[in-house]
Design a protein that fits this description.
mainly alpha
């Protein structure tokens, strides 16, 4: 999509959102919160555009890394701020949000991209080596962070003690750091899309790229602030529905991942499924690989109990999702069935959150 089609709202929404937030309108009623929600979504979509402009300038795979890291920064900042504000009442929020983000990415974003691409192109092709590299890293971190805490004996319950949290954080950072080295240096060719451009993209100059980077930072900051400001309204809505509190984590994760989803679907529609997978799997890896160390540090510094281990139902759903994604990406090509099955998995996850 060309820059002129986005020029108006990608600059106006973040500016209006900043003014709206700092004038104190939020929290004064349902109407004000609805307006804040509209501005929040507009700022999220603006962040997508500015991240893509920067991505086009730096090229692949750096572009998808930038967007994935931006999404992770939003997620980390939001979770940490809610943990500090909520204290012990937020002991499961981090786990619920990280787990929700992983489930939405693996089942929702990848499923929609495969389905959209399959409907339009029947089959789309990507490098199996890239998918394998992502999944090896993701599965290792998932098991260490969300499953293993249930089976350690130093602390009763699905917890890690401080020493274990430090070890797990270092392990996550090592895996993610080595993965970045593989993606950008050692085996960069695994992650670079080949052909498939069906649309002529705007190529930014240096000034436009710098301006977009500046507005990207503004978008990310205001999204975090507004999402935090709306979190109480989201919790009240969930309670009024009679739904479990874990639904709050799902809603927060969905809002945070909206830019990633839009960018990945757009790439799939343009027959660039490799870019879609880079965005989705890269975001999943960054989400757990960077968020867990951040929330672990907050837990240790502020002495906030941190529940990481999933319950049996969630472990089953996580295992199913990882297994189906691995099968779907094992052949290097996609079709509509893979996407449909993944979306059904997502529906099962969300349904069992609401109706446990």
């Amino acid at each position: 999509m060309k820059l002129k089609e986005f020029l108006n709202y990608t600059y106006l929404f973040p500016v209006i959102a900043v003014i709206y937030y700092f004038t104190g309108f939020m929290g004064n009623g349902v109407v004000y919160d609805v307006i804040a929600g509209i501005l929040l979504i507009g700022s999220v979509l603006s962040a997508v555009h500015h991240a893509e402009v920067v991505a086009y300038k730096v090229g692949e795979p750096y572009g998808t890394i930038i967007l994935a890291l931006c999404i992770t920064i939003i997620e980390v900042a939001l979770i940490v701020s809610l943990m500090i504000a909520g204290g012990e009442q937020a002991i499961t929020l981090a786990r619920d949000t990280v787990f929700a983000a992983v489930m939405i990415i693996l089942n929702g974003i990848i499923g929609i991209c495969i389905l959209v691409g399959g409907v339009k192109y029947f089959e789309q092709f990507f490098a199996r080596t890239s998918a394998t590299t992502y999944l090896v890293s993701i599965v290792s971190i998932l098991v260490i962070t969300l499953v293993l805490p249930n089976f350690t004996s130093s602390v009763n319950g699905p917890y890690y003690n401080d020493a274990q949290l430090i070890f797990v954080s270092i392990a996550c950072l090592v895996i993610y750091g080595v993965f970045l080295m593989v993606q950008t240096v050692r085996h960069r060719s695994y992650f670079v899309p080949e052909g498939g451009d069906s649309e002529e993209y705007f190529i930014p100059n240096k000034t436009q790229a710098i301006l977009s980077f500046f507005f990207l930072i503004i978008c990310l900051v205001i999204v975090v602030l507004m999402a935090k400001g709306l979190s109480k309204s989201i919790e009240d809505m969930v309670q009024s529905m009679g739904a479990p509190k874990s639904l709050v984590g799902v809603i927060i994760a969905a809002v945070v991942l909206l830019p990633e989803c839009v960018a990945a679907i757009r790439a799939a529609r343009n027959n660039k499924i490799q870019s879609s997978l880079n965005l989705a799997l890269g975001s999943a890896l960054a989400s757990i690989g960077l968020t867990i160390p951040a929330i672990s540090a907050v837990s240790i510094v502020y002495d906030i109990p941190l529940v990481l281990g999933l319950d049996k139902k969630d472990i089953i759903l996580l295992t199913l999702s990882v297994f189906i994604v691995m099968l779907s990406l094992s052949r290097g090509k996609t079709n509509v069935l893979y996407g449909t099955v993944l979306l059904v998995n997502l529906a099962a996850y969300i349904f069992t959150v609401i109706v446990p």
